[in-house]
Amino acid sequence: MIFKSAKINAFRTWGLLLTMLGMGLMILGTAGIVFWGQTGKIVAGIGLVIGLVSMMVSLAIYFWAGMLSTSAVQVECPECRKLTKMLGKTDRCMFCHTILTLDPELATITSEQVKNKQVKR
Length: 121
Ligand SMILES: [Zn+2]
What we know:
Elements: H1 7-36, H2 38-71, E1 73-76, E2 83-86, E3 90-92, E4 99-101, H3 111-120
Antiparallel strand pairs: 1-2, 3-4
Bound molecules: zinc ion.
């Protein structure tokens, strides 16, 4: 799902996963103090640091995705007729995961051909 989705969605998924991981590590680290006492404090320290770093990274990814989505091109998907955002020259539709491209040389099918296909369907 992560590898087959639109780039913006993939960034959001990774951002969310890292946030969850960071929070999980911090909670686990804190729980370590309760269960293991003195040894738990070291585990908690490591957990807090890794958790914090992972949350900072996820924040950066979120911020980056936000910046990218403002520069993303909005196009109407020829397959499902929904408005989707594209990053770069090639990206997948956010809704039906069709690979879309702005580069005519990479395209295997033009938008006219897709329209004709839909008329015949
Ligand atoms: Zn689509």
